[in-house]
Amino acid sequence: MASMSGMSNSFHFGVGDTLWTTPLTPTSGQGYAGTIILLILMALFLRFLTALKAMAEKRWNPKSAPIRCTDDDADNYLEMQPAQDYEIRPGSGSRWNATIQFTRAIFQVMTMTIGYLLMLAVMTFNLGYLLAILSGGLLGELALGWI
């Protein structure tokens, strides 16, 4: 079986790992730092998209808000009831809306694309790339996790 040149099968730091295309191969410390910054920003943007989609879903479907328990209910969680009882009638659900569905689809495609590109970066086994993506996820969660 022929070995694949340029592919490392162990984690490492350093320049020379191709990120998606040959022009994105850092050959200096400055290029490597730029690549790290790009990956951090992409991971932040992925977390931003996730938070933005969650906010949009709340706006599009306000009836599906999570049930919260009060301090009195916390001890007896088996007896919790929904905050409001809704009468469910056939056809009373939300109607299909082309604008909302198209927006959901765009969010999904963008999230999948960025996630796939980040996965490919991790598959280079470059620890700098991996730590940059994890740092971006951490910073994104700290900044946007409350939304």
Automatic annotation (TrEMBL):
Quick check: keyword Transmembrane in the entry? yes
Q: Could you name the domain of life of the organism this protein comes from?
A: Eukaryota
Please tell me where this protein is predominantly located: membrane
Q: How does it sit in the membrane?
A: Multi-pass membrane protein
Q: Under which name does UniProt file this protein? A: Copper transport protein
| PANTHER family recorded | COPPER TRANSPORT PROTEIN CTR1, SOLUTE CARRIER FAMILY 31 COPPER TRANSPORTERS
- Which UniProt keyword terms apply here? Copper, Copper transport, Ion transport, Membrane, Transmembrane, Transmembrane helix, Transport
The record's comment on protein family reads:
Belongs to the copper transporter (Ctr) (TC 1.A.56) family. SLC31A subfamily.
Location in the cell reads: Membrane
Q: Which GO terms describe its molecular function?
A: copper ion transmembrane transporter activity
- Origin organism is Coniochaeta hoffmannii
Q: What transmembrane ranges does the database entry give?
A: 31-49
InterPro entries on file: Cop_transporter
Might you report a single GO cellular component term?
A: plasma membrane
Annotated signal sequence is none
The organism's lineage is: Eukaryota, Fungi, Dikarya, Ascomycota, Pezizomycotina
